[in-house]
Design brief:
With about 240 residues, the protein is of the alpha/beta class. It has a single domain (about 5-215), classed as Vaccinia Virus protein VP39 (Rossmann fold, 3-Layer(aba) Sandwich), CATH 3.40.50.150. The protein has 8 helices and 10 strands. The strands form 2 sheets. Strands 5-4-3-6-7-9-8-10 form an 8-stranded mixed beta sheet. The chain has a two-stranded antiparallel ribbon with strand order 1-2. The relative contact order is 0.15.
């Protein structure tokens, strides 16, 4: 059973109400992302508020945290207040589709740890289904909405399972978003990569590629490269 809370160096996450708990995917995405030049950030599917709070630690940007599921929204609000970030982070209980059509605001940086399971067995929990499966936020809706909300010089970043690499890049190209960065995420050195962190921009340029290994295959401990990347957040690093 997951802990009801997770303490980082500079903030605390309560996670007893939200279906999706703090995990490597979210922490890694927040640690890799460079928010320092952004004045406005949109966190799509904010969940507990993890990425918004990581962005608030790394930048002075105004952050909009968007969450459709009511319990997760309430948890996100709770965590923003708990950490005294209510002046920097605004939490909205709305679908991304509705928000992208109703707002006129543009964002310098858009980040998303999306629900990505497709055609897979679902949980009896509707909250978990909303958090884990792409029914509520299909990739086509995500990409089209991002193109409406991203500034002309802005960055869109997300993490996806490796199996979606080609199809998602193609979908983005069809909407004039071009991949400028990829990080291939390997759970262990003897395993193939199972996640990819992407950055997209309206400006086409050569794609920078990196990789990271999360755990040592012999000891199952976090690698030094993962510790170095996340040391500003994890207490134990």
């Amino acid at each position: 059973m997951s802990n009801s809370w997770f303490r980082f160096k500079k903030f605390i996450i309560n996670q007893d109400k939200a279906a999706m708990k703090v995990g490597v995917d979210g922490v890694l995405l927040g640690a890799v992302s460079c928010f320092k030049n952004a004045e406005t950030i949109l966190d799509i599917g904010a969940g507990t508020g993890l990425l918004s709070l990581m962005a608030a630690q790394k930048s002075k940007a105004k952050i909009t945290a968007l969450e459709i599921e009511k319990d997760a929204y309430n948890q996100c609000v709770e965590n923003v207040l708990l950490n005294g970030k209510q002046e920097q982070i605004k939490v909205l209980n709305s679908s991304f589709q509705k928000f992208s059509k109703s707002t006129k605001q543009k964002f310098d940086f858009i980040i998303c740890n999306p629900p990505f399971f497709e055609n897979s067995t679902k949980s009896v929990s509707e909250n978990k289904n909303a958090a884990r499966h792409s029914d509520i936020l299909p990739k086509t809706d995500l990409v089209k909405g991002v193109t409406n909300l991203l500034n002309s010089s802005g960055i869109f970043t997300l993490i996806l399972p490796s199996e979606f690499e080609k199809s998602f890049e193609k979908l983005c190209r069809q909407n004039n978003l071009f991949c400028i960065y990829k990080m291939y995420v390997y759970p262990k050195s003897d395993k193939t990569h199972n996640r990819i962190i992407f950055e997209f921009s309206f400006k086409k340029k050569a794609t920078k590629q990196e990789k990271i290994i999360i755990r040592d295959k012999h000891t199952n401990q976090y690698t030094n490269e993962y510790k170095k990347l996340t040391k500003n957040f994890y207490l134990k690093f």
